[in-house]
Design a protein that fits this description.
Strand order of the largest sheet: 6-7-8-3-9-10
CATH class of the largest domain: Alpha Beta
GO cellular component, one term: plasma membrane
GO molecular function: ATP binding; ATP hydrolysis activity
Number of strands: 14
Keywords: Antibiotic resistance, ATP-binding, Cell membrane, Membrane, Nucleotide-binding, Translocase, Transport
Family: Belongs to the ABC transporter superfamily.
Strand content: 25-35%
Shape: globular
Number of helices: 10
CATH architecture of the largest domain: 3-Layer(aba) Sandwich
CATH superfamily of the largest domain: P-loop containing nucleotide triphosphate hydrolases
Membrane topology: Peripheral membrane protein
Length: 319
C-alpha cells in the first residue's frame, strides 16, 4: 500500500538577509534551520511575536521566496525553483487585501476564476460560501474590513486548491467579524482543505488549529496540539472569588486548614474586587470554598496557549 505524502514537508530551511557588502552589518537569520510536516487535511498554525520569521517561513512554504538552505516539498514535489505545476493546487491569502480598482466583489472573483480557468458557476458558489452573495454587485472598496477579508479568502479558494495559506486573516477585525471568519475557516477545513495559518491571536489558534508551531528568532520553540502544549506547561489554576465573600485574611485561614501541608497550599493574591487563589490542586480548594459558602463571583482559569506563548517568547514589547 502506497503511503500518502504529507501536504508539506520542510527540512532544515534557512533564510538570511543582509550581511554582504561594506557597512551592511551582520546577516540576519529570519528562518533558522526549521523542519516541520503538515498532514493533508490538517489546520496548522504558525505563531510568534513580531520579527519571529513567520511571514518569511510562510513565503518559503508557498514557493514565493527562495530559501538559502533546506528543502520544501508539497505532496512530494519541490516548491522551489518555482513549480508552476503546483500553482493551481495552492491558494494564498495575503496579510493585506488588495483588489483590482473599481471592480465589484463578483467581478473580482470572476477575474481570479478566469486566470485559473475555473469552471462557470464557481463565482456564485464562492460568494455563497463566504456569505457575500448580497454584496456581489458592491465595489470591493465599499466592503467592510471583515467582508474584504472574506472576499480575499474567496479569491484564494476560487480555483479549488488543495492547500490554503492564510497570513493573519483576522488582523484589525472587530470581535464579531473575527468570529464570523473563524466559522468560515473551519468550514473550509471541514471540506478537506489543508490550511496553514499565521496569527498573533492565541485564542484564534487554540480554537482553529489541530497543531501549532511557536516561533521566535527564526526557530521553532515548540510544536504540537494546543492542548498538549498547555499540559506541558504545568501551570497553576487560578481560582478567583468576590473579595466581599472571601477577603484575603479569611482565604488564608481557609487554606491553612486544607490537608497536604504548606507545600500544597494555594498562593493567595488580591485585586480590588477579587481574591485569587493559585493552585495545582483545585479540587480541595473548590470544595473548601463551597463549604464556606464563598463561591460568589467564582471564576476558574487554567493555563491557555497564551501562557505557553509568553513562557516561551517572553513578555518584552516587540516593535
Amino acid at each position: 500500500m502506497t503511503e500518502t505524502p504529507a501536504a508539506i514537508t520542510a527540512r532544515d530551511v534557512v533564510k538570511r538577509y543582509g550581511g554582504s557588502g561594506r557597512g551592511r552589518g551582520a546577516p540576519v537569520t529570519a528562518v533558522d534551520d526549521v523542519s516541520l510536516d503538515v498532514a493533508a487535511g490538517e489546520f496548522f498554525g504558525i505563531l510568534g511575536p513580531n520579527g519571529a520569521g513567520k511571514t518569511t517561513l510562510l513565503e518559503i512554504l508557498e514557493g514565493l521566496r527562495e530559501p538559502d538552505g533546506g528543502t520544501v516539498r508539497f505532496l512530494g514535489q519541490p516548491v522551489w525553483p518555482r513549480n508552476t505545476a503546483l500553482l493551481d493546487r495552492i491558494g494564498v491569502q495575503l496579510q493585506a487585501s488588495a483588489f483590482f480598482e473599481r471592480l465589484t466583489a463578483a467581478e473580482q472573483l470572476q477575474t481570479f476564476a478566469d486566470l485559473y480557468g475555473a469552471p462557470s458557476g464557481r463565482v456564485s458558489e464562492m460568494l455563497d460560501l463566504v456569505g457575500l452573495t448580497d454584496k456581489a454587485g458592491t465595489p470591493a472598496e465599499k466592503l467592510s474590513g471583515g467582508q474584504a477579508q472574506r472576499l480575499s479568502i474567496a479569491c484564494a479558494l476560487v480555483h479549488d486548491p488543495d492547500l490554503v495559506f492564510l497570513d493573519e486573516p483576522t488582523a484589525a477585525l472587530d470581535p464579531q467579524a473575527r468570529r464570523n471568519l473563524w466559522d468560515l475557516l473551519r468550514e473550509i477545513n471541514a471540506r478537506g482543505k489543508t490550511v496553514v495559518l499565521t496569527t498573533h491571536y492565541m485564542d484564534e489558534a487554540e480554537f482553529l488549529c489541530d497543531r501549532v508551531a511557536i516561533m521566535d528568532t527564526g526557530r521553532i520553540l515548540e510544536l504540537g496540539a494546543p492542548a498538549e502544549l498547555v499540559r506541558r506547561l504545568d501551570a497553576p489554576v487560578r481560582i478567583s472569588v468576590d473579595a466581599a465573600a472571601l477577603p484575603p485574611d479569611r482565604a488564608r485561614a481557609l487554606v491553612a486548614a486544607l490537608p497536604g501541608g504548606a507545600d500544597g497550599h494555594p498562593d493567595i493574591g488580591a485585586t480590588d474586587a477579587s481574591t485569587v487563589l493559585s493552585t495545582r490542586r483545585p479540587a480541595p480548594v473548590l470544595a473548601a470554598l463551597a463549604e464556606a459558602d464563598a463561591l460568589a463571583g467564582l471564576q476558574v482559569r487554567g493555563a491557555t496557549l497564551e501562557d505557553v506563548f509568553l513562557a516561551l517568547t517572553g513578555r518584552e514589547y516587540r516593535a
